[in-house]
Amino acid sequence: MPIQGHSYDVIVGSGALAELADVIPSSAERIAVVTQPGIPAQFNELAAYVPDCAVEVFEIGVGEGAKTLATIEQLMRSFARMGLNRNDVVIGAGGGMVTDVAGFAAASWHRGIPVVHVSTSLLGMVDAAIGGKTGVNLPEGKNLVGAFWQPSGVICDLDALATLPPREMRCGLGEMAKYHFLTGDDLLAMELEERIARCIEIKAEVVASDEREGGRRALLNYGHTLAHALEIATDHRLAHGEAVAIGLIYAAELGLELGRIDEARVAEHRAVVAGEYDLSTRPPDGLAVDDLVALMHRDKKALTGLTFALDGPDGVEVVTGVDEAPVRAALERFLAS
């Protein structure tokens, strides 16, 4: 991952966990492993891979309801009890929620200590575990409190994917689908391992040019503006990757409403999301336009009015100050579809 002044390795493949020691900082004497119930033991019982370190494992709750400042406080107090210092390391072992929380905890403890991610979900491998965005939720919005904190390394052991429930795998496919529209690559022609590695390369190239999301990095949020609103509006009954899949279709519909793309390009979005990945392309029933628009106004990208990553003649671009009228028109049509 070529971040200016802080490059790190992302190791992808079956059995990649065996290389964990290679990405642990040599200064570490203690390791705090942040994980959660349900993560297979071989991916969070890591003492055998780092025999020269004292390892303690801390479980956090499952689901977005545990992605809170209260969880961060609990971890901080655990770090204090074990004597974790700036020479030591935190490992986030799990899916995207775990690595978001572990990364924020590491960024905050002693104003920043190293973190390594052992990603066990497809969504984490292609998105959450790489790039250094960390954070937790507030009732007012998703990931509103956090930090940019690059890991010292990331392990993507593809053996973990065999343990994923079908819904978790679909969530990763929803996040993967966005990469089809960020480059001209024929990702569908690739085997899964190659496709994961290519998604990581795409994200690395974007993040290297804009680490702190001052502009271009927001492209990686294609489909996410509505997705985050949908997650909150459904009390997270709609999982992140599921919401992103729906958000990609809405972004295409909004692009059509604004005259940026044509019907054929919208159909291409539907063909990838629904046809190739077999994901839902319509939002749940019972949602209100006013509520969703209000939630989209809270999006972190919304610096000057409503902001979206939108497809267009030059590809996906960040578009600021989008007028609310076409947003509502596209949303009303979309909810009624």
From TrEMBL:
A molecular function GO annotation: metal ion binding
InterPro entries per record: Dehydroquinate_synthase (IPR050071), DHQ_synth_fam (IPR030963), DHQS/DOIS_N (IPR030960), DHQS_C (IPR056179)
Keywords of the record: Amino-acid biosynthesis, Aromatic amino acid biosynthesis, Cobalt, Lyase, Metal-binding, NAD
UniProt domain 3-dehydroquinate synthase C-terminal: residue ranges: 190-302
Cofactor list: Co(2+); NAD(+)
UniProt EC number: 4.2.3.4
Protein origin, superkingdom: Bacteria
Family annotation (Pfam families): DHQ_synthase (PF01761), DHQS_C (PF24621)
Enzyme class label: lyase
Keyword Transmembrane: no
GO-annotated biological processes: amino acid biosynthetic process; aromatic amino acid family biosynthetic process
The keyword Ribosomal protein belongs to this UniProt entry's keyword annotation: no
Domain 3-dehydroquinate synthase N-terminal, residue spans: 59-170
PANTHER family (UniProt xref): 3-DEHYDROQUINATE SYNTHASE (PTHR43622), 3-DEHYDROQUINATE SYNTHASE, CHLOROPLASTIC (PTHR43622:SF7)
Protein's name according to its UniProt entry: 3-dehydroquinate synthase
Source taxonomy: Bacteria, Bacillati, Actinomycetota, Acidimicrobiia, Acidimicrobiales
